[in-house]
Amino acid sequence: MHIHILGICGTFMGSLAVLAKELGHRVTGSDANVYPPMSTQLEAQGIELMQGYEPAHLQPAPDLVVVGNALSRGNPAVEYVLNKGLPYVSGPQWLADHVLQGRWVLGVAGTHGKTTTTSMLAWVLEHAGMSPGFLIGGVPQNFGVSARLGGTPFFVVEADEYDSAFFDKRSKFVHYRPRTAILNNLEFDHADIFPDLAAIERQFHHLVRTVPGEGLIIHPQAEQALQRVIGMGCWTPVQTTGDGGQWQAKLLSADGSRFEVWFDEALMGVVEWALTGQHNVANALATLAAARHVGVVPELGIAGLSSFKSVKRRMEKVAEVKGVTIYDDFAHHPTAIATTLDGLRKQIGDAPLIAVIEPRSNSMKLGAHRDGLPASVVQADRVYWYAPANLGWDLAATVASSSVPTEVCDSLEAIIAGVKAHAAPGTQVVVMSNGGFGGLHGKLAKALEE
Asked: What residues does the Mur ligase central domain cover (predicted)?
């Protein structure tokens, strides 16, 4: 079968393409922006990529068109598909029908930590010899690929609350029907499609409604939004994590790199790993609970976590130049910025810490999270914010109240000059964006080299 994917370079759609290819289909795809790392992963798989959304890409007609959620009415390829009556489907629906059907699905949902926790869980199952399939919205370093079919009934999927397609406004995760569901946390996000937190809670309850009575739902005990979701009705056993929960961690080091795992007041073992931050400790507890549900004893799960390498672009060390360390991080929400910087601060002690932040997500561009930004960076010693001319709201006014020395820059050159002036040996620089940030990491490393 010839499948053509519209929006193929998105992390979800690109992973879908890998699975379709592995199933034996001929896969082609088009996107407005064909660029690495997804383009290189796809080309290595023998998948033909086309730049732009020309109707000519759909001639001769493919057997099926999978439409990404970034495409809307008015897009030339979408209009062609509709006018010619070509068969089309959303990405989540295709995944549900052709990959997840009949499998034990482990879904990881939540505002933060989905990609890391999905990667963690896939690795723990792999370490336990369970050869799971997975689809992850990033590239886990333990696997080096974002998706695979796997060799057993188990399939781990990053379960996103974003909508499915222009013709299906339900959250993607409603299609997945997990037997084991992790609900990591829940805050307001995706201001481009959700009016308020209550609207997102309703979508999460739609997910809860699909989990079977013989399944398991895992969530942090202290997360009030998730308590409200469960309170709307739950027909599935629940296990809780964190403060007051059945699964608890006792830190042996302040940065979260060593901690005890307790379940029902019994010590299960000690995790010693390369990750830091309270958020990753929380991700680990949820992972161990989910793995136990499919038969991985906590002791074996803990051993798996100890050899877990994080996901690309999650506090990934990308350069060390003249004693200055540069990290690449995906954080794009005040909570994620705060927890990431807090974890690094606890790891590095009093070393100088510079944060460089691009407010790039759709919610950030709409200014939905701006009130939380000044307080999110208190662990840094200096912050550079990137405010391109088309941002649409006054970033400088928003961060003027910050207690940390702050500069708002309208160019990468200004950021590089600022960092270069203040970075001495021992300085840690964290570059935060959910996009490519104009290749800032490499340019910064080169400038420091000079």
From this structure: 108-291
Nearest Cα to Cα of residue 434 among 373, 377, 357, 372: 357
365 pLDDT more than 80: no
On whether residue 402 sits in a domain, the answer given is: yes
| 21 CB neighbour count, 10 Å cutoff | 17
Residue 203 tokens read as 């979508």
CA 318/CA 344 separation, integer angstroms? 15
Q: Indicate the number of domains in the chain.
A: 3
Which among 278, 270, 287 has a CA at the least distance from the CA of 128? Answer: 287
Which CATH number characterizes residue 412's domain? Answer: 3.90.190.20
- Say whether both 271 and 364 belong to one domain: no
d(CA 237, CA 285): 17
Give residue-wise pLDDT tens across range 57-102. Answer: 999 999 999 999 999 999 999 999 999 999 999 999 999 999 999 9
Domain closes at, from 242, 275, 306: 306
Identify the bridge partners of residue 108 per DSSP, sorted by sequence position: 158, 182
How many whole angstroms separate alpha carbon 158 and alpha carbon 227?
21
Closest listed residue to residue 184, CA positions, set 112, 128, 100? 112
- Whose CA is closest to 369, among 399, 407, 341? 399
Query: Residues forming the annotated binding site?
Result: 110-116
Tokens encoding 183: 């609900």
Does residue 22 share a domain with residue 107?
Answer: no
Tell whether 195 is covered by a domain: yes
- Whether the per-residue pLDDT at 21 is higher than 70: the answer is yes
Q: What is the pLDDT of residues 280-295, one digit of tens each?
A: 999 999 999 999 999 9
**Residue 437: which H helix or E strand, with range?**
none
pTM of the model: 0.81
* pLDDT at position 196 over 90: no
CATH code (residue 18): 3.40.50.720
d(CA 257, CA 308) in angstroms, rounded, equals 12
Binding positions for ATP are: 110-116
Q: Confirm whether 95 is domain-assigned.
A: no
